[in-house]
Amino acid sequence: MNHLSMYGSSLALLTDLYQLTMAQGYWKQEMVETDAIFHLFFRKPPFKGGYAIAAGLKTAVEFLMDFEFAADDLAYLADLRGNDGERLFESEFLEFLRGMEFSCSVDAMPEGSVVFPQEPLLRVEGPLIQCQLLETALLNIINFQTLVATKASRICYATQGEPVLEFGLRRAQGIDGAISASRAAVIGGCSATSNVLAGKLFGIPVKGTHAHSWVMSFGSELEAFEAYAQAMPNNAVFLVDTYDTIEGVKNAIKVGEKLRQNGYEMAGIRLDSGDLAWFSIEARKMLDEAGFEKTKIVASNNLDERTIRSLKEQGAQIVVWGVGTHLATAKDQPALGGVYKLSAVRKNGGEWEHKVKVSEQRIKISNPGRIQVRRFWKNKASRFGGQGEFMGDMIFDELMGEPQSNIIVDPLDETRRKRLEGSGIDMLKPIFREGQYVGEDVIQDDIMEIQEHARHMLKYFHDGIKRFDNPHEYPAGLEKNLYDLKTRLILEARGFEPETSSSW
Fold first, then answer.
1. Which residues of 346-377 are buried (b: 16+ CB within 10 A; e: fewer)?
2. Using CA of residue 136, residue 447, residue 112, residue 377, what is the dihedral sign?
3. Are strands 237-239 and 268-271 parallel, antiparallel or unpaired?
4. Residue 80 has pLDDT above 70, yes or no
5. pLDDT tens digit string along 121-147?
6. What homologous superfamily is domain 33-67+103-150+341-500 in, according to CATH?
7. What pLDDT score was predicted for residue 372?
8. Which family does the similarity line name (predicted)?
9. Mean pLDDT of the chain, nearest integer
10. pLDDT class for 3, splitting at 50, 70, 90?
11. What is the rounded distance in angstroms from the CA atom of residue 183 to the CA atom of residue 213?
């Protein structure tokens, strides 16, 4: 289901004003026939980690398929005024927008792909004006979902395969922040969500227990548990820490015994406060001694990957993890920092001209050309089905043809190089061609299939990239000829002939 349809109108104005003022500027400069290539990528993995999980592509596709300026959009733009009180946008330009049809070509990393710095999650090629107008919305969609999917992947790695439930709706950043977070969290590995609307929209399993208010609404905790068991005998998970956790476990056991007499089983208990490690160990002993060995212990309470790792190290008996705030808001890094940079222009159907954005910060210097990423593996015979392991990614320029070198260069340190042997797979797949959707084989409707793709792909990387502290740096570098071209363009932009300087 298209969750953007909730807004019931065109989303073409989901953009920054300067995108529209630039578009009018291009139009006035008669650059309507100028084509461009842009890439959406990030410079550093989030959370000081070693990788990211691509997410948000399906939402981006939904946005692009419905991209148009509706009559009320244009009426609003017609009313905007500049600093001099005059109309900001000319009537003729607004008519141009009215007749504009999306005609870009888009290539992308499939959702669930493991992605590294400088690698495009999305490549957009087409009329410069259109590419420019799409920037803000695409960044908004891809950045956030990729961020949350990566956070979820890290949390699921910490639980060592035990299920993680996404509980972040009430703490998320607004309605769409919550819905997008639920979707991305499942891509990253979560088993279910408490968000019922997200469950409906995306086919995500929904899970939940009850609140402290349920217990407080009855005369006693035991009475509350009995009432809940009557209401939900096949979904009886009791929150045991409203008053006294140990007494809560005892009351849960009493009600569990009554459930068993009626042919049901107590599914679990939930801990939401206190010393989760100690209480879970004590609760496990009590449950086992009472014959409830299969009753699961669920925990919540401001959990993240590091807290979960610590609880595991303490021997906690928790087997289901409810993670809310830290996941849905990506609390320790609430933005990915993805960017969308111009890499080539072509005027009136002529030759492509490579472009590079220069900066005093080397990490902010962009890559020129039509970028593709080729991922190499050590054991070709495995092709993701055996014992192979990915050995490195080559970032190359399709405008230069097939890579002529098997050497990749670290874009931040030219002395760090690696030779990639064998064959690889190109990671960016076609989604649109000149405005026509061609991504049927790439866009996956089943979100659990996307999750499985992410989990499967992660298996073929060195485990070190998953470390929380000082992660292994996976080799992802520029093909040598692209690196040389980039160096030449930088030197030219700084007023040097390439052979006159090799220093920064």
1. beeeeebebbbeeeeeeeebbbbbbbbbbbbb
2. negative
3. parallel
4. yes
5. 999 999 999 999 999 999 999 999 999
6. nicotinate phosphoribosyltransferase (3.20.140.10)
7. 99
8. Belongs to the NAPRTase family.
9. 95
10. confident
11. 28
Secondary structure tally for the chain: helices H, strands E: 15, 21
How distant, in Å, are the alpha carbons of 175, 201, 309 from that of 3?
A: 11, 6, 34
3 state SS for 469-498: CCCCCCCEEEEHHHHHHHHHHHHHHCCCCH
3-state SS of 347-384? ECCCCCEECCCCCCCHHHCCCCCCEEEEEEECCCCCCC
Sheet containing 268-271, strands listed edge to edge, beginning at the edge strand earlier in sequence: 192-193, 164-166, 320-323, 296-299, 268-271, 237-239
Matching fold, domains 33-67+103-150+341-500 and 152-328:
no
Confirm whether pTM is higher than 0.70. yes
b/e 301-322 (16+ beta carbons within 10 angstroms → b): bebbbbbbbebeeeebbbbbbb
What contacts 174, CB < 8 A, 6 or more positions away?
Answer: none
| String of DSSP letters for 233-291 | TTS-EEE--SS-HHHHHHHHHHHHHHHHHTT----EEEE-SS-HHHHHHHHHHHHHHTT
**pLDDT of 382 above 60:** no
Residue type for 368, please? P
Q: How many residues does the chain have?
A: 504
The per-residue DSSP string of 75-123 comes to HHHHH-B-TTSSBSS-HHHHHHHHH-----EEEEPPTT-EE-TT--SEE
**Which residues, other chains included, contact 445 with Cβ-Cβ below 8 Å and sequence gap of 6+?**
58
For residues 237, 239, 244, 248, the Cα torsion angle rounded to the nearest 10 degrees is -10
DSSP tag of 416:
E
* Spans of all domains in the chain: 1-31+68-101, 33-67+103-150+341-500, 152-328
CB 400 within 8 A of CB 369: yes
Q: According to CATH, what is the number of the domain 152-328?
A: 3.20.20.70
What is the DSSP annotation of 160-177? TT--EEE--GGGSSHHHH
